Amino acid sequence: MESKKLWEADQKTIQKSHLVHFINWLNKSYQLDLPQDYETLHQWSVDHTEMFWESIWKFFNIINHRSYDAITNGLDMPDTRWFLNAQINYAEHIFRNSTTEFPAIISKSEIRDTEELSWKELEDKVAWLQKYLMDSGVEAGDCVVGFLPNIPETTISFLAANSLGAIWSCCSPDFGADSVVDRFRQIHPKILIATDGYSYGGKNFDRKEVVAEVVRQIPSIEKVIIVPYLESEHDASSVPIPIGSETDKAANKYVWWSTILKKNKNAPELRFTPVEFNHPIWVLYSSGTTGPPKAITHSHGGMLLEHIKYMAFHNDVHRGERFFWYSTTGWMMWNFVQASLLAGATAVLYDGSAGYPNLSALWDFAEEAEIHHFGTSAPFIVACMKAGLNPAADHSFVALRSIGSTGAPLPPEGFDWIYDHIKKDVWLCSMSGGTDVCTAFVGGCIMKPVYEGYIQCRGLGVSLLAYNDDGESVLDETGEMVVTRPMPCMPIYFWADTENHRYRESYFSYYPEVWRHGDWVEITKKGMLRILGRSDATLNRHGVRIGTAEIYQVLNNFEEIEDGLVVNLELANGDHYMPLFLKLNQGESLTEGLIDKVTKQLRATHSPRHVPDQFIAVEDIPYTISGKKMEAPVKKILLGKDTKSTLNPDAMRNPESLEIYRKMAEEEDFKKDE
C-alpha cells in the first residue's frame, strides 16, 4: 500500500540547499553530469568512495596544516585509515565561523533562565580553560573527561580539550559512581571537569560525593575542575569537595571553574594544535547494561568530515540558524549538536527533564528561542501524541524549518501528529545511526518528499543495504542492516582492545568485511527506509521474523497503554512463548476488552503471529540511561539466566524495574524446562 505523502520542499528551498550547491560544484569540479536527483548522487558517492570523501574535503575547504599523502590505505574494513598523515583540528573549523551577527550558544535549564553566549565570549572562555590545561601539562593525546550536564560549560570544556588535540570523554551526572569509573578508568584521564550537582524534574541532586569517589578510584586524575551548577556562590579559596583527602588538598587538586575563567582580564590567544587525521577525538561508550561498556574511539578527522557533511547535506543547516537536539551529555547526540557550530549555526542547549513542568516545556522553548532545527526522540513525540498535546494551538513556530527524530523508530502516527499538531509545512527528518559512528546512517534529504512512516534516504557515502538470510541485497523486504564500504566516522578502535578483537566481534563476526549494525531495515525501490527494531531482539516465531517495532507501533494507537515491551522465548522443547508486557496509564487496567482490541489490531495490521501468547501488566518498562528498551536483558532474565554479574544497574534509567521480571522468572518458569 502506497504511503501517504506528508511534505515536500518547494523548488526555491531546494535550489538554495547545500545539496544542490554540492551537485553543481561536483559537476564543475570533477567534469561530471549528475542530475539534481538524490538517489543518483547517493549511488555515485558509494561507487566512488575515495573520490566522494575527497570531494567533501575540498568542498568544505578543510584547513590542513599538512596535506594528505593518500585518501586511504585501502577499503578493507575495519582496517581503513583515511587521509594519511594529514594534520587538522576540529575546533579550528568551529572558530573560523566566529561572528558578531548572532550568538554561538543559546542555553536554558530547569534552574537557569535562557542565556546567549556570543562567539567572542565562547572564544575567551575556551582560551582561558585551554591555558589552564596547558599549564597543567595537558598535551595532544591526553584524556580530559567531563562529569557534566548539558550546559555551555560542557561545550567550552570539550572545545578547550579538542583545541589542544586532547581526547574528550563525558558522562552525564545522573550516572552513578561505578558507571563513571567503569568508563573513565579505561582511558586513564589526566583532568576531570565535574559538576557539583544537577537538577531534573524539579529536584536537585548533589553529586559532590560521587565526584570524590570517582577521583578516589581513578589515580590518573591529577586535577579536578568543579563547575558550580547548583551552588551559585562559593568561597573560591575553599576546597570544592569537602571530603577530599588531605593529600588532595595539599596538592591543590581541586579548583573552581571561576578561578580559571578570569572575567576582568584580557583572554589569552586561542591556539589550535594540529593532529593527525586518524588521531582520537573522543571516546563514547556502549550502554554497559550487559557487560563492561565498550570504549568506542573515533578519529578527529573522521568526525570532522562526517559531521560537516551531515549538517549541511542531511539537515540543510545554514549559517546563523539555530540547531537544537534534546540530549544529555551521555548520549552521542550531544556530540552531534556541537557539530552545528561547524556549520556556522547557533547551538541550542537544554538541561533538565523534557516533561517538566509538563510535556509542553520543550515546545515552549522552541518558540522562545526561535529554533530552526528541533531534534528530539521518537518516544518523546509518541508521549506528546498520547498526552493529546496540540502545541500548534498556542505556538506559531515561525522559525521552525525541521524536526529531527531518533532513538527509536518513529511510528506513522507520530509522523501524522507532527503535521497535525506542530506545523503543516515543517520538514520531518527521521534518522537512525548510533554511538558506534556518532552520526546517522539514514536520515533527511531536502530534495525528497516525506512519506508517512518512512525515513527519506541513506546518507551520502553510506553503502547501506538490507541482507536476507543468504547474505543477498534485497529491496522492499525486511533484511539485516549492513554497510559494505568504510566510512571515516567508523571507530578507529575500542580503547585497549588488543588487535581489535572486540571491535571485529561487534560488527564483523557475522559477515566478514561487512559492517552488521544490528537493526532490521526495509529499503524501498525509491530509496526510502523503515527501521523495524533491533535484530538481536527479533521475535523469531517458528522461523518467521517479527520486528519489535511493528508491535510497538500498534500499541501507540491505544490511549490506555503508556508503554510496552515484547520478547520471544525459545524453549527447550522447541516451543515458543511470546509475552507482551504493558505499562498502563494511570487509572487504566488490563481488561479483556483492551486485550481483545489490541489482538484484533495486531492481526489486522500485521499477522496472527504478531499476537502475543500472554498480555501481562507491569509497573514499569526497563530502559538504559540513553533511552533504549532493554529487551535482551529481560529475555535473559525470563529464561533463568544469571544477569546480576553482567548487568550494571547504574547504566539504567530505572534499575528497580528489572525486579518485576526477576520475580516473574522465580515464580513462573515460563515452560523453559519442559
Automatic annotation (TrEMBL):
<feature type="domain" description="Acetyl-coenzyme A synthetase N-terminal">
    <location>
        <begin position="38"/>
        <end position="93"/>
    </location>
</feature>
<dbReference type="InterPro" id="IPR020845">
    <property type="entry name" value="AMP-binding_CS"/>
</dbReference>
<dbReference type="GO" id="GO:0030729">
    <property type="term" value="F:acetoacetate-CoA ligase activity"/>
</dbReference>
<keyword id="KW-0067">ATP-binding</keyword>
<dbReference type="InterPro" id="IPR000873">
    <property type="entry name" value="AMP-dep_synth/lig_dom"/>
</dbReference>
<dbReference type="InterPro" id="IPR045851">
    <property type="entry name" value="AMP-bd_C_sf"/>
</dbReference>
<protein>
    <submittedName>
        <fullName>Acetoacetate--CoA ligase</fullName>
        <ecNumber>6.2.1.16</ecNumber>
    </submittedName>
</protein>
<dbReference type="Pfam" id="PF00501">
    <property type="entry name" value="AMP-binding"/>
</dbReference>
<dbReference type="InterPro" id="IPR005914">
    <property type="entry name" value="Acac_CoA_synth"/>
</dbReference>
<comment type="similarity">
    <text>Belongs to the ATP-dependent AMP-binding enzyme family.</text>
</comment>
<dbReference type="InterPro" id="IPR042099">
    <property type="entry name" value="ANL_N_sf"/>
</dbReference>
<keyword id="KW-0547">Nucleotide-binding</keyword>
<dbReference type="GO" id="GO:0005524">
    <property type="term" value="F:ATP binding"/>
</dbReference>
<keyword id="KW-0436">Ligase</keyword>
<dbReference type="GO" id="GO:0006629">
    <property type="term" value="P:lipid metabolic process"/>
</dbReference>
<dbReference type="InterPro" id="IPR032387">
    <property type="entry name" value="ACAS_N"/>
</dbReference>
<dbReference type="Pfam" id="PF16177">
    <property type="entry name" value="ACAS_N"/>
</dbReference>
<feature type="domain" description="AMP-dependent synthetase/ligase">
    <location>
        <begin position="101"/>
        <end position="486"/>
    </location>
</feature>
